[in-house]
Amino acid sequence: MRTRERFWAVVTVVVCAVVFFSPKSMAIFLKSCDSFVFLADESSSMHMRYEDEKKIDIEKKIMQKINAAVPNADYQAALRVFSHSKLYDRVFGSVLYSEPSAYSRSEMKKAIAKIDAGVTWTSIGYGLDMAGLDLKKMPGRRTIIIFSDGKETAPYTPAPQVARDLKKRIGKDLCIYAVQIGDDEEGAETLNSIVEAVGCGGVVNADNLQNRATFKKFIKDVFGRHARMGITRVHFNFDKAEVKAAYYKKLDQVAQVMLEHPDLKLEVKGYTDSFGSRAYNKRLSKRRAEMVKSYLVKKGVAPSRIIVKAMGESHPIASNKTASGRAKNRRCDLRFIN
Q1: Helix (H, G, I), strand (E, B) or coil at 227
Q2: Quick one: pLDDT band at residue 119, thresholds 50, 70, 90?
Q3: 3-class secondary-structure state, position 307
Q4: pLDDT tens-digit profile of 151-189?
Q5: Does residue 21 register a pLDDT over 60?
Q6: pTM of the model as a whole
Q7: How far is it, in rounded angstroms, from Cα 16 to Cα 180?
Q8: Which of 80, 74, 6, 69 is nearest to 34 (CA)?
Q9: What CA–CA distance (Å, rounded) separates 46 from 84?
């Protein structure tokens, strides 16, 4: 008779892992953010020329190029400027050219066309503070994209400190990217310090975005990418059904896809090795699949969208005659279905 008790004496506890492979894969778009704010510099330094062109014109061109490349997905978006020319009598100024709302490429194009530099000081910090108020009205993972030469001239709270404060309020859902217009070294340092303060994002020079590969990577990093999703495989320790912390990141990705694609369902099949009775293994495989489902439900996925199947010791993917083979067979396979 097969007994689990005898096996306890010789079993080697196997550290669990999550891996991907791609049979029966399907194409899915994975968003990097749910909401974004274009934050554009309208200060007087943007009137200066860089390589025979006004920096404000370079700024608008690169913003229009990025706007044209935003993927077709559900985003909330806004466009805010700082150091607005109509507020030249104030040290700090910031105006919304596009209120936080469902993203529209055509409306954003019109808003970008309104941008113009004025005779004012620059305060990226003030612009970030105001963008933070916009983000409070916007859902999910939020991103600010700064367009500026990076030159700070106004006596406001330093922009990196404002960014740190925003990160404390918003948390891990905040990223900041910056597109530098021109090649001012101090400006580049300021923009890099802002991004470092939040620990998520990146800085790129507008010149570099003329490179096709660099531009495509920027769009993927900021907005998202198309991917083929195959089977997500979760392995378990012997006679256990608990989901380990090492798996959370991969399962969070699965939950993210489910939340972004409400038309999808998920099949979760639980499996065991061949030790123990078939009846016991059937129950264990169900517990494993149910634990995975429970984790995803806690992340917001509706229970009705997750189909659990208890497969017991059937369909082994490795030999049950070796410890390493049995470890591979103790698993759950997750597969998206239409």
Answers
A1: strand
A2: low
A3: strand
A4: 887 778 899 999 999 999 999 899 999 999 999 999 999
A5: no
A6: 0.73
A7: 44
A8: 74
A9: 12
Q: Domains of the chain, with CATH numbers?
A: 4-16+236-337 (3.30.1330.60), 33-223 (3.40.50.410)
DSSP for residue 16: P
The pLDDT tens digits for 266-279 are 999 999 999 999 99
Can you tell me whether residue 268 is helix, strand or coil? strand
Query: Of how many residues is the chain composed?
Result: 338
Main-chain dihedrals φ then ψ at residue 66, nearest 5 degrees:
-65, -45
Residues pairing with 49 in the sheet: 54
**Phi–psi pair at 187, nearest 5 degrees:** -60, -40
Residue type, 4: R
Angle between helices 124-135 and 159-170 (to 10 degrees): 10
Please give the full DSSP string across 23-59, using - where no structure is assigned: EEEEEEEEES-SEEEEEEE-SGGGGSEETTEEHHHHH
Residues 6+ apart with CB under 8 A from 92: 82, 83, 121, 123, 126, 154, 156
Which of the four pLDDT bands, split at 50, 70 and 90, describes residue 8?
A: very low
